[in-house]
Write a structure and sequence with these properties.
By secondary structure, the protein is mostly beta strands. The protein is about 0% helix and about 55% strand. The strands form two sheets. Strands 2, 4, 5, 6, 9, 10 and 11 form a seven-stranded mixed β-sheet that branches. A four-stranded antiparallel β-sheet has the order 1-3-8-7, with no helix packed on it. Strand 7 and strand 8 form a beta hairpin. The chain is globular, with a radius of gyration of 13 Å.
Amino acid sequence: EVQLEESGGGLVQPGGSLRLSCAASGFTFSSSAMTWVRQAPGKGLEWVSSFYSSTGNTYYADSVKGRFTMSTDNAKNTLYLQMNSLKSEDTAVYYCKKGAYWGQGTQVTVSS
């Protein structure tokens, strides 16, 4: 059974940093495409970034490019999202997903 569990969210001031984690199980993590998606209050889902193990390439939404970095630790079956220079508009629930499988999400609030 595929399971994804996010952690690392919280309250941070504008300009601050957070690192989200997504612990994965139930599939071959090292050969999977993984994605981060977020949903801001009252808004729809927004794609944030994706990593494709087949090519080793990572892609980012323009809104986070240069500030967010996605990485993986295959030994720990864990996906990370390092978020720097956070802005109020980054406030959202962040989800990791693999295909049709989603984690439960972790809340990130950027506020002074």
